[in-house]
Amino acid sequence: MKFSNGLFFSLFVCLFGNLSSIIAQTCVTSGLTQIENRLAYNQANYADQAGQRSVQYVPVALHAVRNTDGTDGISEAQLLDMMCILNDKYQDQEIQFYLTNPPVHYINNTGINNVPNNFTSELRAARIPNAINVFVTNNINDQLGAAGYYQSPAGWDGNDFIVIARNFVYAQNVFPHEIGHFFSLLHPFHGWENNPWSEATWGNPVGANAPSDPTIFVNPIPNEFQNGNNCTTAGDRICDTPPDYLFALNPNQVGCAEWSIPVRDPNNTVVNPQENNVMSYFGNCGSHEFTPDQKEAIRVDLMNSPERAYVRNSFTPNMTAINSVPMLLNPPEGSTVNSAEAITVAWFPVIEAQYYVVEVDLSPGFSSPFRKSLVGAASTPNATFFDLEGNTEYFWRVRPFTEFTTCTGYSDRGSFFTPMSTATQELTEIDNWSASPNPVSAGEQINISITASKSFSAQIEIYNRLGQRVQEVSKTIADGEQSFYLASENLISGLYFISIVGEKGRTTKKVLVY
Q: According to the CATH classification, is domain 327-417 in 1.10.10.60?
């Protein structure tokens, strides 16, 4: 089968957490006024859609963004899990999402991977027609905890794409939240973005208007009343979402705990927010929900809005269930393959599959920075990986899926050994090397012993199991035998990967810290 290369290893901030957390999940969606106008248009065109209605299938183009050298990006398997969470959250709305062909698109650009906000025109140009385009990056605007954003204006002639930070693909109120923005939903705390309520700053009861940014909003945004009397013109303009003055980011709020401070609306009535609303910022709720009126707004936007015409269609994707996993065939379990330069793995096919994700890694948990993965059509159940490290144990597995069915499992884990290699990625300057002791206790020095055939300049790098580089040392490796020490006092217990990187390649070993 033909496989594609996988992974080697105007805005406001939406938060899903609280300021006392180490990481606050933030969303940086733009164009609030434009979303307001679209929501107003949709509400003016509400139709009674009660009773049975057909499922609408919406195409999604997933883009895995990585550094320019192909490293530091999300795995295809995580993208499948992200789609699984999304479809589960929208299932009761008779709206479901499916993948375009090919199922994953790749962008190798370090700038986009870490500061996508600065590359709006490049992301706009990379969009796939007739689909919701979703770019998954390492960071968002270099902000710790930034989770994602929807980039307006809407419509194919606008920007109209979503960006998600890869650390939040499993958060149940991140991707569904941004899709909510795509379909015209505002935050329940609309107007309070970046200004969480505190009595000292905003009073109790609160004033008539939210502390919205006048450079973004020409008109002030009224604060919503608890009794709902102004719900069509205040807050998020949705009448069955209660007032929320960005309580999730109050220092006294912890996760999804029930808001307990008696904050009063402009009518002097105590407000009671909905903590588990998908469009709120309260985190760790277990299950986040849309209200009936929010669901109706989403449905009307999809079915009636001119800006959504390009994602509307009558297509029904492949709905075949996948109830089995592949059986691994070659190489035989625990065997030594003939070459590290090109190794083909094969499996017994799953007849229902349209695609497979195949992963090969040094780590049995498939979480090392040196994981390689391929994704491709299921016409031939095999895949070839190139330039593996020599004299190394590798693990591999396979996951089937279709354009719609992404909530699937893996095959059993297989393993094989590579022989000594002369592949170009190997450092030919090194005859052999070791890292000891292994395992090593935290705080104990790691002794690196090297026998080199000639001198060269190298980088000694240590990666954790998440693929993050936690230590780097420049070193001149001399001809002959030598040794030096690496500090480990800043390494917590776990699996690490030590790499010696030269001009023409690298060589890597695993070290366990306890």
A: no
Domain ranges within the chain, ordered by starting residue: 5-311, 327-417, 430-513
| Separation in Å, CA 398 to CA 2, 350, 390, 414 | 15, 10, 22, 9
Its CATH architecture, for the domain 5-311, is 3-Layer(aba) Sandwich (3.40)
* pTM greater than the 0.85 cutoff: no
CATH class of domain segment(s) 430-513: mainly beta
Residue 194: φ, ψ to 5°: 70, 5
What pLDDT, on the 0 to 100 scale, is given for residue 353?
97
Q: Which residue has the higher pLDDT, 497 or 48?
A: 497
Per-residue model confidence as pLDDT tens digits over 124-148? 999 999 999 999 999 987 655 679 9
| pLDDT value at residue 275 | 96
Average pLDDT over residues 315-330: 95
| Calpha distance 357→7 (Å, rounded) | 11
CB neighbourhood size of 238 (10 A): 25
In whole angstroms, what is the distance from residue 464 CA to residue 367 CA? 9
Q: Which run of H or of E encompasses 507?
A: strand 505-513
Instruction: Tell me what pLDDT residue 129 has.
Output: 97
